[in-house]
Amino acid sequence: MIRVLHTGDWHIGQSLRGYSRTHEHARALAHLEAIVVGHEVDALVVAGDVYDSQNPSGEAQALLYEVLVRLHRARPSMTIVLTAGNHDAAGRLEAPSPILEAIGVRVIGNVRRRDGALSIERHLVPILRNGHVAAQILAVSYPTAACLPPLRREEGSPIVRAVRALYAQVMEAATPHLSGLPLLLTGHLHVAGGTESEGAERRILVGGEHAVPPDVFPGEADYVALGHLHKAQTIGGGMVRYSGSLIPLSATEQPYAHGVSLVTLGDGPARVEHIAIPRPVPFLRLPPRGDMRLSELGDHLKALGLDPALPMEERPYIQVRLAREGLGPGHRAEVDRIAEGFPVRIVDTRVTAAADPVAEAVDAAPLVRLSERDPEDLFRLAFARVRGTPPEPAHLEVFHRVRAEAEA
């Protein structure tokens, strides 16, 4: 039997409302290392979004390389596969490959072709057991426009057809090398039926499409290891799965059970076990249920009983839920003022029972850079604000057509 640890969406280098997550990433990755050792893992698959930015800081890169070295020392025989996600610059992620391969790390960026033919040797990674190939990983990263076969606009759902064609090509090229061994396939995209995190995951497919059906993946795969959605979840019958992220990457992920997926191959259908990663710092909702008046916030914070000398990186993140009744226009500044007297980090303030659905959407939106907002979400907000009603399907169809033409 082969044990593969499926993880993804590390987003090393991320900050949350200005607070660095380096401390949390270091602790979560140390726990991942302990899982690798404790379960005698044969292969580790990171399904995209290794970094949070296409231009990661030196600190973020140093943390990744330190973790990879530690993992190799802990399990020298383990194969490690990193694939590029939409947050990663594929070429930059692949750049240190000659060095990383010396410690058993394979990095897969954009799809490689030579004279029009897919270079399968870059995407097919063997898993060794006692010096023999015991299983195969068919690694595919986030499908950029350059990775996909040409899109023909006259066809319905061209992006779905293109993604399906890409996986069919990869599978066709790999088949002569599989020899009936167990096969794990990777991907980084949104599959229909998956639960996304509000404000945290970009709608990344080109051509105006948001998600692909799970049947785009070849049925020959014993397991499909996906990245992009941050909630651990299984799609369809169980072969297709998101491992989820290691830590909450936005306030909306506060209720998730973050962790990794341990996949056992080679003895009948793939078996999957979700292994939780303890939260490096608490991520709390105040109040735990319902909402509260702004005047009650200080009492809730005091009831936490936190040490005033708690270092900044150990302070819990707080999501505040306020009742709209009697709330003034400067409530966000007042929340910050009250919280200054406590060792906490306020990362989200939400107002319930809003009379105006457009105002509610604006209040609920997490603080993100404009470049990280999905254009469709911005179009919906702008349309509702100007017209007073949400856009209809006909309006969205025009928007997607114009967007596809702009991205061509």
Keywords, separated by commas or semicolons:
10 helices; six-stranded mixed β-sheet; 408 residues; alpha/beta
Short précis:
The chain is α/β, with parallel strands linked by helices. The protein has 10 helices and 19 strands. Helix 5 links the parallel strand 10 and strand 11.
Describe what you observe in this structure.
The chain is α/β, with parallel strands linked by helices. The chain has helices at 22-38, 58-74, 90-94, 97-100, 158-174, 297-303, 331-339, 357-364, 375-387, 393-407; strands spanning 2-7, 15-16, 19-20, 43-47, 79-83, 105-108, 113-114, 117-118, 124-129, 132-138, 183-188, 223-227, 233-235, 240-242, 259-265, 271-276, 283-286, 317-323, 345-352. Strand 15 and strand 16 form a beta hairpin. Helix 1 (22-38) packs parallel to helix 2. The N and C termini lie far apart (46 Å).
Instruction: Pick out the low-confidence regions.
Output: 359-369
Question: How much helicity do the residues have?
Answer: 25-40%
Work out the helix count: 10
Rg result: 23 Å
| SSE pattern | EEEHEHEHHEEEEEHEEEEEEEHEHEHHH
Strand order of the largest sheet: 6-5-4-1-15-16
| Global shape | globular
Going by helix content, strand content and strand pairing, the class is alpha/beta
End-to-end separation in angstroms reads 46 Å
How would you name the oligomeric state of the polypeptide chains in this document? single chain
Tell me, rounded to a whole number, the average pLDDT.
Answer: 88
Question: How many strands in all?
Answer: 19
Beta-strand content bin: 15-25%
Largest sheet: 6 strands, mixed
